[in-house]
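Handout, page 2. Input:
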Amino acid sequence: LAENSLREYLHLAGKIHDERGKARAYLALGRMYLIQGELEKADKSLKAAFDIVSKSDVDDKLGVAETLIALGELYRLQGNLRQADRALSISFDTLQYVARPATESEKFQFEITNERIKAEAWYQLALLYASRGGERDYENAEAAYHESEYILERIKEGIGDQRRFAKVLNQMAVFDTEMAKRLSVGESQEARE
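Output:
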């Protein structure tokens, strides 16, 4: 049902020459495929979104950053950690150059959206570090989780958005459990030696 709706939106956006709309539809499809574990379909959709938002005439830096974050997740799931790291790094750089809107009401909405995107980038970076498995990577993962948590805590306090905050806390609990297991296994091995 969701896929059909997104494909219909994609078709309509194409009919009216709404490039941003097409990119958003491709991005949403790509995210949906990531959740479903359909990495080939996600790859096609996310690359189509990136091709659109990275054109200079579209000028959608937030769209570029969001798409790079999703591509970072895709590359991590595919095991291409170097490419995941690169995509996430570029997303952080891109977020620095997003143009601020002129009106106060648009500024408020923009700041919340921008902060949510930053929090997601930190979250994906934490997952990337955790998947690498080195001691320093775990320290970096923990710092990235905390950065995401900090941003989402501010949003939660400001507007009451708790869903994303809960997602990060859940993942941090999983991370902490994995770290405890690693320490326990390490201590057991040391005791045997």
